[in-house]
Amino acid sequence: QRSDIVVGLVLEPPHMDPTSNAAAAIDEVVYANLFEGLTRFGPDGDILPALAQSWDVSENGLTYTFHLTEGVSFHDGSALTADDVVFSLDRARAEDSVNAQKFLFADIESVEASDDLTVAVTLSQPNGNFPFNMAWGDAVIVAPESAETNATDPVGTGPFRFEDWRQGDSVTLVRNEDYWGEPALLERATFRFISDPTAAFAAMMAEDVDTFPVFPAPETLAQLDADPRFEVVVGTTEGETILAMNNRREPLDNVLVREAIAHAIDRQAVIDGAMFGYGTPIGTHFAPHHPAYIDLTELSAYDPERSQQLLIEAGVSGLRLSLALPPPVYARRGGEIIAAQLRDVGIETEIVNVEWAQWLEQVFGEGDFDLTVISHTEPMDIEIYGREDYYFGYGAPEFVALWDELTRTVEPEARNALLGDLQRNISENFVNAYIFQLAKAGVQNADLEGLWVNAPTQATDLTQVRWTR
Amino acid sequence: MLNFVLRRAVSLAISLLVASVVIFFVLEVLPGDPARFMLGLNASPEALAALRTQLGLDAPVLVRYWSWLAGMASGDFGISYTYRTPAIELIAARLWVSIPLAVYALVLATLIGIPLGVLAATKRNSPIDAGTMGLTQIGIALPNFWFAMLLVLLFSVTLRWFSSGGFPGWDDPGAAMMALTLPAIALALPQAAILARVMRSSLLDTLDEDYVRTAQAKGLTRSQALWRHAFRNALIPVLTIMGLQFSFLLAGAIIIENVFYLPGLGRLAFQAITARDLIVVRSVVMILVFAVIVVTFAVDIAYAAVDPRLRRGTR
Amino acid sequence: MRVGLGVGAVLTAILAAMALLSLFWTPYDVTLIAVGERLLPPGPEHWLGTDHFGRDMVSMILVGAQTSIAVALVAVGLGMAVGVPLGLAAAARAGTAFDDIIMRGNDLVFAFPALIIAILITAVFGPGAINAIIAIGIFNIPVFARLTRGAGMGVWQREFIMAARVAGKGRVLISLEHVLPNIGNMLIVQATIQFSLAILAEAGLAYVGLGAQPPLPSWGRMLAEAQTMISLAPHVALVPGLAIVFSVLGLNLLGDGLRDLFDPRLGKAGR
Amino acid sequence: MSLLELEKLGLTIDGTRILEDVSLEIGAGKVLGLVGESGSGKSLTALSIMRLLPGGANLTGKIGLDGRDLVAAGEGEMNGLRGQAMGMIFQEPMTALNPLMTIGDQVAETVRVHRGLGRSEARGLAAETLERVGLPGAMISPSRYPHELSGGQRQRVGIAMAIALRPKLLIADEPTTALDVTTQAQILDLLAGLVREEGMALMLITHDLAVVSQMADTIAVLHQGRVVEAGPARRLIDAPESPYTRQLVAASTHVPTRVRGAVGEVLLRVEGATRDYRLRSGLSMGSKTTFRALDGVSLTIGRGESVGLVGESGSGKSTLARAILGLEPLDAGRVEFAGRVVERAGRAARLTLRDMQMVFQDPYGSFDPRHRVGRLVAEPLHLLGDKAPKGAEREALVARVLESVGIEASAADRHIHAFSGGQRQRIAIARALVIEPALIVLDEAVSALDVSIRAQVLDLLAAISQRVAISYLFIAHDLQVVRAITDRVLVMEGGRIVEEGATERVLEDPQQDYTRQLVRAAPKLGG
Ligand SMILES: Nc1ncnc2c1ncn2[C@@H]1O[C@H](COP(=O)(O)OP(=O)(O)OP(=O)(O)O)[C@@H](O)[C@H]1O
Ligand SMILES: Nc1ncnc2c1ncn2[C@@H]1O[C@H](COP(=O)(O)OP(=O)(O)OP(=O)(O)O)[C@@H](O)[C@H]1O
Ligand SMILES: [Mg+2]
Ligand SMILES: [Mg+2]
Q1: C120, D30, D38, D409: which one has the fewest Cβ atoms less than 10 Å from its Cβ?
Q2: According to the UniProt entry, where is the signal peptide (chain C) (predicted)?
Q3: How much is the pTM?
């Protein structure tokens, strides 16, 4: 029986410090394996205790008191204390912090250690999401001695410790024998970086890799599934794939034009053509597996005639728009199909393939775009519609009001109702065209178990993974 | 000779300086901000500003050019934006894959190409000649990424003789060589085809030379005349091509490195460009340019070794 | 090896005919996406089947020929338009500082790793056919400059150049009237070969996503996109690859054949 | 019995008949001269004997060497004979040696192949042989490479390789055509000595009747692949039987009839012309060594005068010619033409070129093969600028000039490759005449031509100077030719003019050592 695993990942992490870079690839290696936070995401997205075995919320919802687990030590042998937590949170929210998700800590007013194992966090306003925020990879707890060197020599508290990084090729982790909790079942894990879809397929077929949690070539999944050596596992992700529209720009500032575009898109054709069927159609910016999700796909059902009519109503003809497509296959292939569908209703698009760096600067940073296809993979991020300066530029007052109400609301029923209203608001205003929820289509050796099916956050949690044979 | 070396050294330095200017300023106009790339969608403006200061991106252009140049002179290429390690270390690690791969491929290409070329030349206008030359044409025409893929399908997926890619490191040299074998074959094929063609036509030229006839008039057999006289003379243009090939194999392997997910220099450059890790891009390109110039120099020296006319002052 | 020339000419003619035909007619519209009909095997409806978007492969290959030819032609044209005059000028002033600067400049361009520079160019200006042309074209400049200079210097050694100088002609006139026509054949041969290399280069760039952009079909991109489907629908992965192989083969055979034809040394012996 | 006997030798290459019924014989210690114009089959006869023929060759008849038939011999047998029993010296000393191998090793190779000697022994023998051909190791080390030797020295190495094993038969294919007269004389001496001392049979191939008449015991004349006449040397030269031989002998001694015209005022004046070439050789670039090709040359040429310029190869003749035409810069001194200083570029240069033209050595190479003859001949009209005739007028002019050199006007529409060597050189003269210059510089204008064609061209030049008052500067290394066509002669050595005077006087009664040497070295027919 094997006690090691080779995991295939598409992107190589730039470095190993999840608190100073947005790259999902970092979390895919280190989250839950090397680094842990006060709380953590469970396989289905529940917020579970981690370094904090429990927490209390004060009456007014402003103070969270975290009770740390006893006997936790970092990989360098030093013990975890409340001071480390204070250090980590203060570092993340500091003025000169380079944390990629500073908003997670925006509400924190102060962090104090009551004793060695107790930390009190005071918020400036009540935030029901705070334990959820603390579960992010960007909020993991690090030690002051190693914080600066985590990028190249990560020291965490997790069930695996860092062994070796062969840059450009692989990262190797080994089991942490002094782990505070249930020890990992595997002794060693190697993450291999294979960006080329063909190479990924070949590596899987040649059994050079045991699992690809997010397989980059969906067209081959059927073939792999038919092979008794492999198992294809399809789960959910937090990735809403949308055709984002620049609401600030003529003529997309006209809701009729946006509605016309939304009706021009045949979601199923995009899912089939780009993802070979893997994906769930969505009608709003919300994950379908979330209890508060409401199905609004009918609002923008595929209806080219209606689309053409709306364009006439809006008084636009001979519309030419640019369509920026970042590298992932959902965007490149999906964009090509969407462009063809838009052409059918008389909207010409000019496809501009861009790299991530360019997309981030031009589309996301400067809002210089007409249309773009993009998957928003952060969990529960409908909040972005409240920001007027966000790249697609919505931020309608009604939406902001609803959002404010939500943050003040703690009661689950009422929260869900409000979330429904938020979904409906953006859907009815056709802010963007909502296409599908990205599926987490992974391939694994048939003898492996314990890998996450869904992806509530981008992680490859190996704690429960083992070989059955 | 000393004079020659000095002159070459000066022109080498000027070339490198011009190259450094071109590289630096082309990268300056590259759209895309490394800080934004690192911090992603939700980055706050302060975090971005903080990171830019940390990376030294807010200094004036000329200052940054100068400090880059000065750093390089002392072997310090700067710290990679993304990997946070010295660029030179990243590059050095990749060179341990790229150089052996290039050498391996070149050796293969030589072992295949030269004998084929000689064979075709000696059997000039025979079916063997036509056959080998036809093969070389196909070797040149095959897109190498496609050929690489077919190799993987056959030898890794179907026959399982080789792993489909990756590089295990040099701790186990046997495994390392195994891992480099398919990529080296994929790289070597078109180069072998080119070498075979150059070897053949060069040998045909020298076989026509008077001194080969002279050698036969002395009583050497055809094949003695070929190996002792024609072959060495024919090697001169072949050497030029091999020099060019080495630099091509060093940098041009990006696509092959992708197909076999090898941690090579080309892929490092490609990733660094995507991530706007300008420090690494600059250093890699600079080092490659340097390598090419050095290889060219080495080829010149090799010429002198083969050709006495270049060894002493006269021509 | 006249057979080679014949085969080369025929293959090249087919390539050109495909590109020309695609200007007027293709069996289907290549911008039409019909996901429902994707990856159909070859059959009476679609002679070479359909690709992953349900587009007709015959049409894709035809229009792809047009893209390949256009990119390669313009890139090689660019290389010649700049490289040949530079080479002529350098040959006319061989041994001077001017010549030195041009040749060192050439060496420098040669010293840059071509593919990485191509990636940089497309990173600066964005991917697309035009930028692929520029990237490929730049590396054709030194090829032609060097060739022109080398051959040109050979012509300058000939006695008829001295005769032209005695007739009072200056460097420019001599370069145009005597040098250029005498190296014309060689330039044509090299252009043919560079042309085939440019087709391969475009395919390589397209493979890493930097060639012609969709919806314009390109052989390289078709090949890249189809790689993972090779066991699913072999035709989509094989057809564009074979198209590239045959075009490059054809052009190379043509170039070599022309070289043999033009080279007076070879006479009947052939080579 | 003779050592070598060719009996009805026939040769076809790819079906084309090259040699037919060639029968020859040479005895030991004898010299057979094989003469004939270019393309008559001399070289292929030699290569047939060595059995080093190109692909597609088919040999018939018999080649008897010491009783063995070489036509029937297998390749292995031939390998044993070549270098051992028979050696061959090739025409081009520049290319006949392997540039990558030391001369000692190249000579030693002959020995090693046949005798299976060790390296050092073979080297010893090689050094001995080199010494025998006048390359003593003390002066010319056997570890030198061919490029480090002069043409004459290289030819000696070639001879050393051929005679290292003292073969019974030596074939020398034009062993001296690439060499200057003085060197030629040395090589011929060497060969004659070998024949005398070693009793070797020598087959000496040349197109130069004067050379064979000095060397050979018997001569065979080859014409279009057939032996038209063979016999003892004296008899054949003095009383040739076949019309072809007669024609050949006549052409070799041909002197054009020309009347000395009146010499007018000074047309060209060269004063203290000095030219230094900067040597940028190979690896030692940057070092500032210079080579003085012209060293204070002064001369004058009068209107209507024909002046000869002689001197061995490399003495600076061509450099001077170029400087006169303004094609080469001078480091010191000046050239004045018709009272005007000759400039190197621009309008002033065109003004002097307007009255000076040049005819070059290589009748083929001096024409752009891509242009038609009409255009080639009209090219100097460029010098007239706007005044140049256009259209029909231009065509008429070209036709007239072509006819004046005996070429039909319709030639204007053809390319240069469609003409024979003699015709080409006449077209070259037409080109020089087209703008009616006052001076024509002819740089080795007849050296590359066969004797009979050379005679025609010399006649033409003489006839032209009869018709119009024209000056010639006639550069040559062949004194015979210079004597025939010039009034006055200048002798150059090492960039200087060492002697000057009326042609007859200088050649009959040279005053300077160098001139004497030159005159002595020049082979004379029947000498
Ligand atoms: N390799 C060959 N193939 C076919 N024909 C040839 C070949 N070599 C020579 N010839 C022809 O054979 C004839 C005789 O050539 P050969 O070289 O013997 O002449 P030659 O008398 O030595 O002339 P030269 O004085 O110019 O050296 C010529 O017409 C030539 O064109
Ligand atoms: N471009 C040059 N650079 C250096 N040396 C040169 C150059 N051209 C000629 N020489 C040298 O100058 C000398 C004179 O050359 P030139 O060509 O004038 O000789 P020549 O008398 O015409 O000889 P030949 O009879 O061989 O034509 C020779 O020693 C030659 O090597
Ligand atoms: Mg001959
Ligand atoms: Mg000369």
Answers
A1: D38
A2: none
A3: 0.83
